[in-house]
Sequence to fold (88 residues):
Amino acid sequence: MLDAVSQITLVTLGVALVVAFIRLVKGPTLPDRIVAMDLFGVLVVGLIVVLAGWSGVRATLDSAIVIALVGFLSTVAYATYVERGDPQ
Fold:
């Protein structure tokens, strides 16, 4: 039963990754692209966590933590950029 749930979750996350990638490429504005990139990072973390639970390899959770941290820092950096405005 856990295998079926894991496979359904992986397929769902894969479809969501494709949709987020399409928004990342087609996003008309920079904020759309930033939100899509943040969503892409969250989905990759979710994918890694599900794969770690399914395979039983806990060492992959370290990479999920690093990706989540980088995603958070990039969101904070973008928020700072928006708050200060474009220097040009």
